[in-house]
Amino acid sequence: MSIRVVGLSKSYRRALAGETVLALNDVTLEIRSGEVFGIIGPNGAGKTTFLGCLLGFLTPDLGRVTIDERPPDDLEVRRVTGYLPERLVLDRWMTGRAFLAYHHALARLPDTERPAEVEAALARVGLPPEAGARPISKFSRGMLQRLGLAQALLGAPRYVFLDEPASGVDPAGVVLFRRLLNEIKGRGVTVVINSHQLEQVERVCDRVAFVKGGRVEAVETLEAGAALARVLRVRSLPGALERMGRERLTALARDAAAALADFSPPQARFAVADDDAAARLVAALVAAGVPVAEAAPDESRLERLFLEPPSGTATP
Amino acid sequence: MNLTLAIGLWRQRLASPVRVVILGLLAVLPPTLMALVPGMGLAALSNGYPIAMVFAVGMIGQDVSSGVLQLVLARPVTRSEYVFSRWLAAGLGASAVSLAQVGLGWALVAIRHSPPDPRAMLLFAAGREFEIFGVVAVMALLSSLMGGLGDLALYVVLNVVGGIMSMVGQFQHVAAVSWLGQELGALLSPHVELAQIVAGTPSWSALAAYASNLTLCLLVAVLVMNRKELSYASG
What we know:
heterodimer; A: alpha/beta; 6-stranded mixed beta sheet; 4-stranded antiparallel beta sheet; 12 helices; 13 strands; B: mainly alpha; globular
């Protein structure tokens, strides 16, 4: 029960320019059942093409995609798939409730359960009942995104594909989105996320594929890093960190719920969960007699991957 | 037919004020004219193409270019099911309005003058059904080829081209060009002469041409849709 991608290549013919653009080049990887898998990469890297092939919206030139050993556009796969597109265009003339009911019916879910499940879906994404009666044309960007997410999660899908899910969502929505992802992950749902929001990806994903130039440059496992998504760079006075030593610093960081990521005196990098944790770590360092000259947020693991992609082939 | 998709199309059409106004005018004005002008008869109602167009224009292309189709096809819905359901829904919607229009015309004429020949009315209404389902199939094909409302533009252009070819063929005495123009016109405006069938002298070739045109349009529309890439990455 997994998503398998073998030797996937996809190109587009640009008729006006008279050229062929290779969007995906021999991509092979496996997304395991029940994992949250992120796809990151710069603009034009081939992420959307990759997601389009996973969903069966694009026909590969070479290679194949299978979900549960079936083609992605197989109706049995569609029955257990939820999808939230990046460029979310909904039927603007419908009300929120009518839109969810429409997709509930298209998903061939039982008619008798429709009203209750539509109300539950609205509540699940934090949309008030009155939003259900409002035409979609009057929804804000954030509300649209929530409604799109509610649609994607209708009928308890086993595979969920999310293209920039937190785009345009307010901070409360981002927290809700993370909570929902953890909830569906707990039910064993396989989630594929395409996102530019690296911090969010790092927090929710088990593994991340870094795509560049149509190739998967690296696949990173993030389980351990998910709780410590941010990196704090601390600069001390010369000699201070050496005197304390790597082992003591590691223990001090652990006691402050952080992790020593890099020790290069007079600087050190620590993985921390958030601003509170960063503040606690700095306080602990000062209390331990380390003169902190500067403490600043540094690139996260994924940001560093983005800036300095590894050379060589990825291991799927 | 997928009833959810059909209801979706009807509601989509009724949510457009422009379409509703045009439909209202088409449903009411011709029967009123028919009642007010003595002797005008069924000619006032004209053919079923305008009503069919209100339902059919953009029936696929609008969903493709707006991006709505991606979400629909992410559900357990085949592309052929989508095309056939849209065709049937547009045809049935136009058919209902057409019947209402003919009924209104009959009633108004019956009130002001003497009621028209029921048999002629029946034949007229049935003939329009063939026109409606035929032209909606043509629009399904054009709409699968063109985004947005481009199918209407293509329909007009093809009609003009067909007309020009017919005229040029006749004036220059080039039978092949004239024939091509007439065939193009027939393809774009499918109809069946019911009067001939009722009189017991049906033109089997015309019936076969109607059926094959309709089938061909729908099958090509399905073929085009099956090959269509639904991702903005391909744009």
